[in-house]
Amino acid sequence: MNISNNIGADKDYQIIIASYTDDKFEGILHVTDKDTITAGSTEVFSKEFENVKTDKIKVFIWEGLDNMNPLTAALNLVPENLKGKTPDFQ
């Protein structure tokens, strides 16, 4: 997925990926290390999962786990609709 920083300052961020079935939280699939995206830049993040059986994957971009301040709305992904696509966060 592409992550763009459209604000005028560098920003710390952390990506959290969670699985849901019937809109019920199942668990965390992946958490990135905290990183910084520079103002006006775009970074590419990719993560592959094998044998994930879930209805929906939610991707959260927060300032970090320590304060859980969301930087964007969650991106809701349906696994079978993702093949060959690159979701964008701005």
Tell me what the structure shows.
By secondary structure, this protein is mainly β. The chain has one domain (2-79). 0% of the residues lie in helices and 44% in strands. The chain contains no helices and 8 strands. Strands 2, 3, 4, 6 and 7 form a 5-stranded antiparallel beta sheet that branches. A hairpin with a 2-residue loop joins β2 and β3. It is elongated and about 40 Å long. It starts with a strand and ends with a strand. The mean pLDDT is 85.
Strand and helix map with partners:
Blueprint: E1 2-4, E2 11-21, E3 24-31, E4 35-37, E5 42-44, E6 56-62, E7 75-77, E8 88-89
Parallel strand pairs: 1-8
Antiparallel strand pairs: 1-5, 2-3, 2-4, 2-6, 6-7
